[in-house]
Amino acid sequence: MSEPVPALRPDTPDAPVYGPAALSLFAPDAAAVELAAERGPVVWVPDAYGRMVPMPKHLAPPPMPMPEPRDLTPLPLLDPIAQRFLGAGLGGGALAAGVGYGIGEVINAAAGLGSGALLWVALAVLAWRTPARTVSGGRNGSTVHIRKAVIKRSHFHG
């Protein structure tokens, strides 16, 4: 496009002001005859000031493609994949802690069974299997001896 023609500002006669070019510069001369076959296709494009100006089609800028509509659905606060990773990490840690705690409890129970409870079970079995006469001092534990002594004394002090 051609350069804009400087115009003088009315308040200062010496300072040129550059404004939009007049459309009369682009108007064809009335005296010149132009045949349609000699002229290429012309398109109208907006200039910098919003006016539509003619331009040869081969010099026109390519048309701007229509942008695709944006997806305006609200996104979740946390990414679902990040939530899955976080859940797997916390769940795996809790599982490992629970398994470790359970194994520790089983080992503690086995150690307590060997030192304390197993001793009491062995004493109970030994007491149950021991014959009764050895516990009662050599006497037969199933025989009961009853001794009844009656002593009569008569005294008369009178």
Offer a concise description of the structure.
The chain has 158 residues and is an alpha+beta fold. The protein is built from two helices and four strands, in the order E-E-E-E-H-H. Among the domains are: 6-59, no CATH class; 81-135.
Number of strands: 4
Strand order of the largest sheet: 1-2
The proportion of residues in beta strands is 5-15%
Largest sheet properties: 2 strands, antiparallel
What is the succession of H and E elements? Answer: EEEEHH
> What's the end-to-end separation, in Å?
169 Å
Alpha carbon gyration radius? 59 Å
Structural class: alpha+beta
The outline comes out as: rod-shaped
Number of continuous helical runs: 2
Mean pLDDT across the residues is: 78
Percent of residues in helices comes to: 25-40%
Residue windows where pLDDT falls under 50 for at least 5 positions: none
Question: Which short descriptors sum up this protein?
Answer:
158 residues, alpha+beta, Integral membrane protein, membrane
Give a topology summary.
Layout: E1 6-8, E2 16-18, E3 42-46, E4 52-56, H1 80-129, H2 132-135
Antiparallel strand pairs: 1-2, 3-4
Keywords: Membrane, Transmembrane, Transmembrane helix
Protein name: Integral membrane protein
